[in-house]
Amino acid sequence: MNKFETVEAVAVPLEMPNIDTDQIIPARFLWRARSEGYGQLLFNDVREAGGFILDRPEYKGAEVIVADKNFGCGSSREHAVWALSDAGLKVVIAPSFGDIFFNNSFKNGFLPIVLPEQRCNELRAALARNPGAKVVVDLENQTVTGPIGVNDGYGQDSFDIDPFRKELLLQGVDDITFTLSQGEAITAFESRYLAETPWI
Amino acid sequence: MARTLFDKVWDAHVVERLEDGTCVLYIDRHLVHEVTSPQAFEGLRMAGRKVRRPDATIAVVDHNVATSDRRSGIKEEDSRIQVETLERNVEAFGVPYFPLLDPRQGIVHIIGPEQGISLPGNTIVCGDSHTSTHGAMGALAFGIGTSEVEHVLATQTLLQKPAKNMLVRVDGKLPAGCTAKDIVLAIIGRIGTAGGTGHVIEFAGEAIRALDMAGRMTVCNMSIEAGARAGMIAPDETTFAYVAGKPFAPKGAALEQAIAYWKTLPADAGAVYDKTVVLDAADLAPMVTWGTNPEAVLPVTAVVPDPAAEPDEAKRVQLARMVEYMGLTPGQKLTDLKVDVVFIGSCTKGRIEDMRAAAEVARGRKVAPGVRALVVPGSGIVKLQAEAEGIDKILLDAGFEWREPGCSMCLGMNPDNLTAGQRCASTSNRNFEGRQGPGGRTHLVSPAMAAAAAVTGHIADVRELV
Fold it and tell me: Per the CB < 8 Å rule, is A107 touching B145?
């Protein structure tokens, strides 16, 4: 996993609430090998319908999505994070997320940020007024700033993140490496627990 | 301190608590299927790691297998590749597996309880959001992503923070024609698709206690549609009677010992929930979703809502989009909606009780002209049981298709799909845009309601047919 560095990039406002993982990556593509990449399949069916905001030239190279409530709800498919990540995105900012999507994000060096609904609305409005404007996401200092370079200030927000998850992202360490370092504790637990619950 | 059912199961599985509250959580059962596991096994291989507890793991194919006759092999190439990949992986890593032609093959969330693999008090995970189903056993069961699948395979643990506790109490008795499916759709209609986010929902109350295990699994299955991390129901005599005699369940003295422990799991008197919602079952009617998420649900007697009547602009835009996608007219009666396809099956509603409910409505009737009606048992065991009871014959005589077990038309990744514009009454769990095939229009209903739609050719109130 790569270390998560500060992102200064174009941000896309996505207005729909409840964007589910079936929309992010339809199920019929899930059998593809990870190495083939999922980026070009991101929002496949919505894009085929035409006029999708991510396809507009001013949002080319976007690395940040600013979304509405309950982003990534529905199916557990990690392919949704892979599709976003393979398409070059690094951050989604939203008032709330589907729990499994939220968890999956961190395992891929992808950062989901929760900001209050009002601030997400304001940030999307500011980005819509300034298509192609950039924002800065600084994980170390836990801030979102932007849109930058335009005189139409949205400003800066701080966001919360579990210290443990932040550390793993900044260091680019995956969970398994960490957990395997706890091997003795797991073995000790396992032998006691399985003795107490022989039916398991 | 008084603890909830969730608190107790959680506490019993904490290996270690880190400084920020993240826990190393021990996992009792890991269910594996063909779609979300290939990259996880690949990860193990690349790192030279083993599966820590193959004996706590079980693999099956369900998501993308065709539900047509499969004795001559899998015709679809993409499906065959995934099945073969899983078979190579389970062999290389020594994971137990129910092959496609084994009668125990079926939807992962049907076979876990059916085989006695999923037990009360367990922590159960699977790379599938509907793992919440197993919470009906009184287990803590939740869906995980592929990285977490790899994590559990390698370590038999997960890194998790405890969820918050939410209680959904359904008091009273269900009226005739209403089922577990109607209960859970009504709950989602009330609390919304994000109503349970960050929480584990415990379902309780007289109407939940009265449900059989199949009904309880239906309710827990759809907890994820309310955004919850998991759903749980306290184990009781109904649970113990269900577990007894299942192939992988404990037997004799071990079962006695287990039951004694399981009886300690229900919430203590005075346990505190972060959120509580109360419904009265007596107020329920058979439910139908009309829009493109499960909270867009109404009683079958209702009409299509008018987006123009919605004061909030963002909501108005969303409602209008749903009405357009679903091909509806505001004010139209739901019972006037003609259906092209009926799908009875899925991890929500593919159990023997669901087959019986469909057959009861179908008996002596015919599928309406122009309607395609599929019935897909959730496992080979369900299929055999239904055939022993003559259910297949009732359904076939009525003009339904009787198919092989699998996820089928629930999710649009195998040959069972809607085409654009087709309207479907479906017993599955998601009515998202394109979920059953690009452009497909899904109305979620109970099996009896789905059978009623099949024989009338439109969304129908099953209470008028029985």
Answer: yes
Residue B45 has pLDDT above 80, yes or no: yes
Amino acid at residue number A158 = S
Residue of chain A nearest B257, judged by CA positions? A199
Q: How far apart are CA A55 and CA A39, in angstroms?
A: 13
Which amino acid is residue B87, in one-letter code? E
Average pLDDT over chain B, rounded to whole? Answer: 97
CB-CB neighbors (< 8 A) of B254 in chain A? 198-199
CA atoms of B365 and B397, how far apart (whole Å): 8
Q: Which of residues 62-121 of B touch A (CB under 8 A)?
A: 63-64, 78-79, 81-82, 119, 121
Of B399, B407, B408, B418, the closest CA to residue B361 belongs to: B399
Q: 């960490």: which residue's tokens?
A: A178
Interface of B with A in 194-233 (CB under 8 A): 194, 197-198, 224, 227, 229
Q: CA A180, CA B240: separation in Å to the nearest integer? A: 36
How confident is the prediction for chain A on average, in pLDDT? Answer: 95
3-state secondary structure of B30: strand
Contact B64 A31 (CB under 8 A): yes
Calculate the CA B290 to chain-centre distance.
20
Among A99, A25, A61, A123, which Cα is nearest to B195's? A99
Phi, psi (deg, nearest 5) at residue B73: 100, 170
- B62-B67-B69-B75 Cα dihedral, nearest 10 degrees: -80
Note the pLDDT tens digit of each residue in B297-340. 999 999 999 999 999 988 999 999 999 999 999 999 999 999 99
Domain ranges of chain A: 7-172
Helix ranges restricted to H, B201-251: 206-209, 213-221, 237-243
Give the whole-angstrom CA distance, residue B180 versus residue B186.
10
Question: Backbone phi, then psi, for A177, in 5-degree steps?
Answer: -60, -45
What is the ipTM for the molecules in this complex? 0.92
What is the Cα–Cα distance from A31 to B173, expressed in whole angstroms? 44
Model confidence band, residue A152 (pLDDT cutoffs 50, 70, 90): confident
Interchain CB contact of B421 with A (< 8 Å): no
CATH of A7-172, one of 3.20.20.70, 3.20.19.10, 3.40.50.1820, 3.40.50.620: 3.20.19.10
Token readout for A11 is 């941000």
Q: Model-level pTM? A: 0.96
Residue ranges in B244-341 assigned as alpha helix (H): 252-262, 313-325
- CB neighbour list of residue B375: distance below 8 Å, 6 or more residues apart: B344, B345, B355, B358, B395, B400, B401, B402, B403
User: Residue B78 to residues A31, B47, B89, B346: CA-CA distances in angstroms?
Assistant: 7, 27, 17, 21
Sign of CA dihedral B3, B8, B12, B17: negative
Interface with A, mutate which of B88, B193, B199 (most A CBs under 10 A): B193
